[in-house]
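[agent] plan:
  1. take the single chain provided in the ticket
  2. run structure prediction with default settings
  3. attach structure tokens to the ticket
  4. add a short note for the reviewer (M.T.)
[agent] executing step 1
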Amino acid sequence: MFDLFFDRNSRFVRAVEALGVGLLIVNTILGRIWTLGLFSKVLFFLSAGFYVFLRFCHTWNWYRKFELPADVDATDIGIRIQLKKAMVPTSYLILIINLAVFFKYAFGVLLTASVILAVTAYVNLVLVYLHLKDDDGTPPSFFSRLSKT
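[agent] step 2 finished; step 3 output follows
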């Protein structure tokens, strides 16, 4: 059951994220975002910005310069696996935020979600910074891969 709700490769998690983004589009079309108070709008756009940053970190190929073996999933190595894991709570939060805006219970939810997303974005930022600062030529997950021999 936990695999369904919290596995980074779960289709359910992807569906939750797609539903959250779809609801974001609905809220934008219906104009519900503009009916929020000023502080709630700031928190909403801050949360949306964190989501875009986290989605970018997850999507970007951080290991383009390395030729990986065919049996290695490029999204499950190095920092990419950590960035992929960060998308699980982000997917749930983007849905919860947009449900709160849709039903006009936004302030408390936006404040809590913004704090959680800010911490997650900060961790991702540190991981990306350290990755970019590292000039070692060792391929990602070199020491943790099992050999096929």
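[agent] step 4 note for reviewer: The longest helix spans residues 106-133.
[agent] ticket updated
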